[in-house]
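Reviewers of the previous submission asked for a worked example of the structure-prediction workflow described in the proposal, so we include one complete record here. The input consisted solely of the amino acid sequence. No template or homolog information was supplied to the procedure at any stage.
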Amino acid sequence: MKATTLVLALLAAMALADTAQARSPATVVGPVPGEPVPLVPTGSCAAPTGSIVASPSAASGNTSGGANNVPGLPDTGGLCDEYAWEPNNRKGPEDVWVFTPGSGNNLTFSLSGADSWDPAIYILETCGDANSCIAGTDDVGGQRTPSVSSTFTPGQTYYFHVDSYYPAAGGDEPGAGLYTLNVSGTFPVTLNEFRID
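From that input alone, the workflow returned the following structure tokens.
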């Protein structure tokens, strides 16, 4: 009887651990030298889709079913949006990726695999605050592969948004769907502590 109880308790603990792991926030799989770092997506500003911690890295995402928290970008002299003159120029649901680069960074963010919808990308200093946009672009020329490059203040956290000019449904084109986020360039980490024993 005791052995049966012990086995049942062990099985229950294993099931609980599997459930907790399945519901865990975005995780980063350890990098293989020279290979992209795969990320597991999960959400939005309150629960970001994932964290970008290395370059090169690649992550799959899906904006379908998300919320439209940034309905439009302001006119920043063309840095963030070629449609800034038009109100509500970002009607699609967003995915949000968080990153904090080290010194000497220079990163390029690009989307691929968004063949069935109209993507747009931008980087904010404050999550969800369109006025904090520092860089962005639409899928210029209908290529569906927007790309943006920039350098960033070391140690500051930034928010990379995947969005669309169109709403998720009902626009001239679909405004949500699957994509792959590709990050390349220099993404140094900051050394917080160094010790020789």
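Residues 1-33, 36-42 have pLDDT under 50 and may be disordered. We consider this example representative of the routine output the project will generate in years two and three.
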